[in-house]
């Protein structure tokens, strides 16, 4: 009984598998192989078809890997664009942080000349409520970012780099955080502790409305 040599079979399968990557139909692999003896041909064909399925699977996996890589790159680019758009709408850096009393005084003076409302978020790094309201406060900063904006958003860590109370917190006698101050024309209009973004927004609308009406 003559059987297809194993080396011949491997050669043909390898050759045809490469061609499949170029788009050759899978059935050409089966038709390219011949059996010199009809005896036991059904078993040989069964084994061949099994190997054919593995060959097709390998080709399919390689194709899927390429497609998944392309999709992943596209998704990554889209996510980057969405993040950029979100940053444009509400950049985190629009909430300016100051550290010294002198810096705070300079900002208040510039805001006074511009007629801007100044909102200050006094926080502590280890404060859970402070971290919670930080995100909401950042979203309220739209349109801000410099002293010429109608509303200026600031933040200040009441604990300095030496783990002591900052000079600003000491002068203002801040004991509770998160605490929000609202200044207009260099004067403190209101102060209250909260983690409620809507309450902060209500105060902003309250104190910025007269300036809008004058315009």
Provide a short characterization of the protein structure:
By secondary structure, the protein is α/β, with parallel strands linked by helices. The protein contains seven helices and five strands; from the N terminus they run H-H-H-E-H-E-H-E-H-E-E-H. 56% of the residues lie in helices and 13% in strands.
Give an account of the 3D structure.
This protein is α/β, with parallel strands linked by helices. The protein is 56% helix and 13% strand. The protein has helices spanning 6-21, 27-32, 41-89, 101-114, 128-139, 167-172, 197-214; strands at residues 96-97, 117-123, 151-157, 179-184, 187-193. The protein has a five-stranded mixed beta sheet. Helix 1 runs parallel beside helix 3. The model is unreliable at 1-39, 87-92 and 211-215 (pLDDT under 50). Residues 69-209 form the Thioredoxin domain. It comes from Nicotiana tabacum. It holds the Pfam family Thioredoxin. It is found in: Plastid, Chloroplast.
Task: Using brief descriptors, characterize the structure shown.
215 residues; alpha/beta; 2 domains; 5-stranded mixed beta sheet; 7 helices
């Amino acid at each position: 009984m003559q059987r297809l040599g194993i080396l011949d079979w491997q050669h043909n399968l390898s050759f045809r598998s490469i061609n499949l990557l170029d788009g050759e139909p899978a059935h050409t692999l089966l038709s390219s192989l011949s059996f010199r003896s009809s005896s036991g041909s059904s078993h040989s064909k069964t084994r061949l078809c099994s190997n054919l399925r593995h060959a097709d699977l390998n080709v399919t996996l390689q194709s899927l890997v390429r497609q998944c890589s392309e999709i992943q790159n596209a998704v990554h680019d889209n996510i980057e664009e969405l993040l950029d758009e979100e940053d444009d709408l509400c950049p985190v850096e629009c909430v300016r942080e100051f550290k010294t009393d002198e810096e705070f005084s300079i900002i208040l003076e510039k805001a006074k000349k511009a007629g801007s409302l100044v909102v200050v978020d006094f926080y502590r790094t280890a404060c859970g409520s402070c971290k919670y309201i930080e995100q909401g406060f950042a979203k309220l900063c739209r349109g801000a970012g410099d002293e010429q904006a109608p509303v200026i958003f600031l933040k200040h860590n009441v604990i300095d780099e030496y783990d002591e109370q900052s000079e600003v917190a000491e002068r203002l006698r801040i004991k509770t955080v998160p605490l929000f101050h609202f200044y207009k024309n260099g004067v403190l209009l209101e102060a209250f502790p909260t983690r409620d973004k809507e309450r902060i927004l209500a105060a902003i609308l309250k104190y910025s409305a007269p300036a809008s009406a004058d315009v």
